[in-house]
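Q: What would this complex look like in 3D?
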Amino acid sequence: MSNTNERSNPSDFGSRTETFACVWCGLTVTARAPDGGRRNHCPSCLQSRHVHDHVAGGPSECQARMSPISIAVPRNGDWKIVHRCTRCDELTAHGVHGDDNQLILMRLAVRPLAQPPFPLEVFGNL
Amino acid sequence: MPRRNPRHPDRRTQRRKDVTHRADQRPGGAFRCAGCRLDVPLGAPGTAHRNHCPQCLISLHVDGRVPGDRAADCGGRMEALSLFARPDGEWMLIHHCLVCGELSANRIAGDDNPLALLRMAVRPLSDSRVPVRALLAL
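A: Here is my prediction, written as structure tokens for the whole assembly.
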């Protein structure tokens, strides 16, 4: 979440025209996603920014870039992106939005299957 | 587990573990899993610290940042949330604490159930709605 105003509550945002610049690719995106929620990561490169302290709550002073590492699927079936802070290794999970880059999302989802630690051919015989 | 493609030979080696499991706390050198009640031996092939049950991948929120430091006072059950591959090809599990919501990343062990791991890996693709929408958008 790379917001310009320092509000602690992520759902409390008023302006439809509020924007932020991505820390990685520099794209200027609106803070509000098309499905109405607040945007947490850049829709183009899916990079985020560590502005919220999830342990203590409130704003974080880290402010470093958070890179997407994994796709998590809760029981309701929606995808979540797990971000890891490049500076302090903090992990967060946030939902995907409709205009997120589908190519990077699929890359993240199939990445473990491309590098299996055991031969996957065995599972065909089970 | 041996690294299959050691592309980063200069990468930081594993942190030296100076906290050991005390055998007098747990007789027989085993513990019982909080999820599936399986008796799990403490030694795990490929890792110095067994972090999760090899059968159901459930962990307990006892450690802080360093594996084995027992710094967390939460004690809640942690379920495997997702799985990712490190740049060197090693799979890591992301555990999610059901009590406090904390996330942690842990290496898989050599005796983890491959079927459970593969179920985690294909979980994003198992529900066809999102992947189909993603592939159609490309």
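A: To summarize the key features: The first strand of chain B starts at residue 30 and ends at 32. The interface with chain A takes residues 1, 4-5, 65, 81-85, 89-91, 94, 96, 101-105, 108, 114-115, 117-118, 121-127, 129-131, 133-135, 137-138 of chain B (CB under 8 Å).
Q: Very helpful, thank you.
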